[in-house]
Design brief:
Blueprint: H1 2-16, H2 19-56, E1 61-66, H3 90-99, E2 103-118, E3 121-130, H4 134-137, E4 141-145, H5 150-154, E5 159-163, H6 164-171, E6 181-184, E7 187-196, H7 200-203, E8 205-209, H8 210-217, E9 224-229, H9 235-249, H10 251-266, E10 287-291, H11 292-298, H12 303-311, H13 316-364, H14 366-374, H15 379-416, H16 424-450, H17 454-459
Parallel strand pairs: 3-8, 5-7
Antiparallel strand pairs: 1-9, 1-10, 2-3, 2-6, 2-9, 4-7, 5-8, 6-7
Helix pairs in contact: 1-15, 2-13, 2-15, 2-16, 3-9, 13-15, 13-16, 15-16
Amino acid sequence: MALLITSIKLAARALQRNVLRTTLTMLGMIIGVGAVVTMVALGNGAQRTVESDVRSAGTNLVHVRAGNYTRGGEDSNIPSGLGAATTLVADDAAAIAREVAGVRRVSPMVRLRGWAAAEANKDYAQVAGVDAPFPEIYSWGFSRGRFFSAQDVASRAAVAVVGASVRDRLFGTSANPVGLTVTIRNRAFTVVAVARTSDEDQLETIFVPYTTLQDVIGITHLHGITVEAAQAGDASRIAADVAALLRRRHAPQIEAASAAVARLRQGGILGNQMPQAGAAFAPPDDFTVKTQASEALTKGLYTSVAAFVLANMPKLDEVNMQEMASTLQRAGTTMTALLAGIAAISLVVGGIGIMNIMLVSVTERTREIGIRRAVGARARDVRLQFLVEAITLAMAGGAVGLLTGIVASSVLTWALEWPTALSPSAFGIAFGIAAAVGVFFGFYPAQRASSLTPIDALRHE
């Protein structure tokens, strides 16, 4: 160990003798490692952007809505309830997050359609009461401010986030409404952010804490729950698990409602939305659960047509996931090949430079080697000294290359607005490659130095 420490000190001292030559020798390693870090950052940034776009498209979302009315459901053998229901509550959302596997985030939802006023302007807008994780579920950005926090939801704070379209109508085009007030049903809300999203409906919406909107409307139940699956391919399975969980939790209410509807049907008051007596149906749920993909596929279709489409595409979410995974894999493979080519060329050039300078160093320090051998140094000691020197040179270049890659990634993000994401694993790989290059290209000069005999080395001029 003491010999290794001594060799490192000697290597550092040898490299400091000619700083310019050392710097030029390290240049190949700097470029190679910097290219690795920068390309990995660009690849990770691009992949995260694609994944973010996929999430914002809603392919991994499950929507739960209070009530269960399906027009034409009886004709398609689909049992349905009466529509409005007040049985969906915040505890249901908590139970979904706690008990359903594969759920990443959950947000309760309350909705209101009404007038919103700001200064002298009024707009008939959609108001959505949501929870703090809502923007992460849809991968939002914010052109101004920040989304309200979990503490704001718990304290029923009067804060609001506006979509860009609502902002333009209430406060003026491209105005900064943060800190200003918007009034909804005589309740003043302070605007804390402007949402940036590709969803046109969300751009037309004002978002407030769902607890606060419950107070404004005067209710304690929810109108819906948005569930985010950790994997898009799990959306169908999670939808089924959520439905089963809510069916268990709402069993008393479902049974009571079914009995009440049956009594009304006997009096001839209701239509044909409930299954007839003796039909092989369980009591209809007081909620509906659908994946975002199935909603998009059946939007605007009559019930019988929608049921036919869904019945013939039972694995829609899995198909979407496979296609997205295949696309991401192809993009990742292309990026990896490009990265490997650039890194290999730069690192080989850097390694050749290290070998060249080490051979020159052996020639220049032949008498020094002879003196060391004459006073008792073994061949392996000389080999270790020059090998450590080559590794130190390579790793010093690698360290500077890491800093170069980090700076280059930041510059690309700032100047060209290219998304980048630095990877700690890339740092380790780059350092490991730098050390391997030092060993590979430094071994021959070190072996050559260790093979010199003391007499021949001392005779060298």
